[in-house]
Amino acid sequence: MKKILGAILLSAFTLTINAQEKETEYKFNSIVNLDATVIKSQGRTGTCWSFSTSSFLESEILRITGKTIDLSEMYNARIAYPQKAKNYIGRSGKAQFSEGGLNHDVMTIIKQDGLVPEDAYAGKLVNKDRYDHAELSYILETYLNAILEKKGGTISPVWENGFEGILDAYLGEVPEEFKFEGKEYSPESFRDAMKINPDDYIQFTSFQAYPYNSKVILNIPDNWSNGSYYNLELNEYEDLVINALKNGYTVAIDSDVSEKTFSSKYGMAIVPATDINTMSNEDKSKLFKEPVEEMIITPELRQQEFYNGNTTDDHLMHITGLLKDQNGTMYFKVKNSWGTNGQGHEGNVYFSEAFFKLKSISVMMHKDAVQKKLKKKLGIK
Length: 381
Description:
By secondary structure, the protein is of the alpha+beta class. It has a single domain (27-378), classed as Cathepsin B, Chain A (Alpha-Beta Complex). The protein has helices at residues 2-23, 48-65, 73-90, 103-113, 134-148, 159-171, 187-193, 234-246, 281-286, 299-307, 353-359, 372-378; strands at 29-33, 178-180, 183-185, 201-205, 214-217, 228-231, 251-255, 262-263, 268-269, 315-324, 330-335, 348-352, 360-366. Strands 1, 4, 5, 6, 7, 8, 9, 10, 11, 12 and 13 form an 11-stranded mixed β-sheet that branches. Helix 2 (48-65) crosses helix 4 (103-113) and helix 5 packs antiparallel against helix 6 (159-171). The radius of gyration is 24 Å and the shape is globular.
């Protein structure tokens, strides 16, 4: 009988310990959860800028019209490649030519060349089961460098035709007209039907190196088109995003994701107060599983991390909500474009406030999401 009683007590003690351990694991309560389309995968491409902005625009179309639309990410890439090529040739190769881009590049494309649904332009003639631009990107850059060598004495006047031909072979020709839900559209008329006005969208950033409350051009590699941003003080920058989300507006984001404290597997991005390189193995094993004390982020630290090259322009995503953990720490729900297989939180990443303040490069949102007082200060109409 004593043995039985002892076993029962031991079992109860073990259950209590296990329950206490489980209580330390992350528990999230949703504060804001805005409508967003399904998570997609950008595959083996550097087109996160298009996936991020397209996802953002899909939420905007849903917010404005009530329609759920799947936009073509590859249409934006197809239009952007020739523009990047002209920039590269025009600067005699002294510019970046890559798959990368930023949110404003999509807005420029939409303004000039319209908007296209996925059904009208999938851009998957090669490797139809997934996106893969590894070969395409290499061929395009090799082609441009060959043009710059001027083997014929001068740059060929038909180099652009050859460049377009490569893109058509790999991605397909750009549609001038297409049918969607039984109606005929051009890219321009489809843009207008979806109620998207590119001029309504504004970008913001926060860096001490630039004057606050003014428009600046961020000196980052993917800003090949010299897009501009309103530069805000750090707390104002974060408050702007929180306010937008609480008022029903999702936000596109450009961020550093190269940190060891960013995990797509666990769907978490944090800034522990203790340097991960000096942590014990036990503490490392708890990262992304239990809340930890995080670093206090100052404008000075944010600027220094950028100057040091520790904060880089890596990846663009889409903020769709806010959450809090059991300790009251706020997180941004960020929709990624790496699919859902093997990804935490069904393909979303939860950015802690500290991570957002330290590692986000910039954000883009509808101008109506900006507080009236801030719009007046910045002169936004």
